[in-house]
Amino acid sequence: MSAKKSKKPIFLFLAKEREPLFSKKNRALLKDPLDDNNPITVQVLGICSALAITVQLKPAVVMTLSVIAVMAASNVIVSLLRNLIPNRIRIIVQLVVVASMVILVDQVLRAYAYDVSKQLSIFVGLIITNCIVMGRLEAFALGNGVWRSFLDGVGNALGYGMMLILVAFFRELFGSGKLYGYQVIPEALYEMGYVNNGFMLLSPMALITVGLIIWFQRARNRKLIEKN
Amino acid sequence: MNRDSNGYTFGFAAAMVIVVASVLAFTASSLKDLQQDNVRKEKMQNILATIGIETDRDGAEKLFNQYITAQLALRNDGSVDAEVSAFSDINLAIEIKKNPTDQRFPLYIANVSDNDFYIIPLRGSGLWDAIWGYVALDSDKNTIKGAVFDHKAETAGLGAEITQDWFMNRFVGEKVFDNTGNLVGIAVSKTNNDPKDLDKNDHEVDAISGATITGDGVSDMILERLSHYLPYFNKTTQTIAFNE
Questions:
Q1: CB of B93 within 8 Å of any CB in chain A?
Q2: pTM for this structure?
Q3: Over the Cα atoms of chain A, what is R_g?
Q4: Which of A11, A32, A52, B114 has its CA 20 to 30 A from that of A170?
Q5: Host domain of residue A206
Q6: What residues of A are in contact with residue B212 (Cβ under 8 Å)?
Q7: Which of A:73-102 have CB within 8 Å of B?
Q8: pLDDT tens digits for B127-139?
Q9: Predicted ipTM > 0.90
Q10: What DSSP character marks residue A124?
């Protein structure tokens, strides 16, 4: 009897006081930004970097990975400090946290993974100015616990990265006939008169591609249909 | 404690600045040696690549010492300044801003299977920021043996394509002097009607669509940098090998 009793409270404690790490609510934090609440196509944030680095798949993938790392880390830090940050300078504090995370990551890469850091160098500035990062800090991490903030950061970065990679896929395929730097459109097709669409390489086409994706998503996802 | 008081706000800001500054300063200074080592080896790797020796970054140092027979720092009049080390003392980014008479021009001479190659570091401006590279001339000091380019912030997919092999390989075999012995460099041209770069006597390579300004930057950089080496080349060779 006593043995049973000593076992039970632990489970009770876990079940009552703490929700499971991947409860339905927490899973939603990861899943929502991928579709229903996508930062790019629904909230229309982070468009500037989506235009700049979606010419090819490779930089888009590198950018996605770095934004995941930066968003997860800065969300966690701001969430840890959320009860200490003075209200009036909170935006500055968020900016400092994001900027120092980016610089730290860049410095470490430059020493230990030089090739990756060369890939990343021009994007460092773009990560700091990415409105999604600041937006999530302000809207979520300041008012939520560490684990939930971490999930929210990863989820939003994934939603952002997904769109980035999707746009880059179309732009590289039709703009240069390649995917991830490898030629995929066969030489024979070029000999028959096919030409790469140079317009796809320019920024306006990224905007049009994002627009087409939004159109497709809104037509398919009933939750996004506006009622008036 | 009142989180909205002025004292707390100032205190928090001050503490934050001190913590962040010391963390960043500590990281930067403790990683500095490793970072500089990477940059140094990459430079050797790039110099070797122009004479067709491909190597990874770790193997670069050994091969560099093996093939590079001379590293000269030239004055504007073609004489050698023995007090300046071409590899470690000259930073082209700073050097090109000086008056040509005060500049020192680095030149690497490589010997591969009894052929001398002259490797000239380049630096100029692209569309957004600096571009740089190395060009190796054959022992006739006219034909390009190989070229390597790099950039700081050119647009991915457009200007940034100058680092791709297919672009750099177009320079191989082109001549930098015209028939009368004038330095003309290599123009990155949109109108040369030679997309496969079969004509090696036209002093032109085919440009990249959408990267006009970066391409012009490459042309200007080659001509401007090479022009400073003419006195040295004239001194060391009586006649420059012209086109056949």
A1: no
A2: 0.73
A3: 21
A4: A32
A5: 34-221
A6: none
A7: 84-89, 92-93, 96, 100
A8: 999 999 999 999 8
A9: no
A10: H
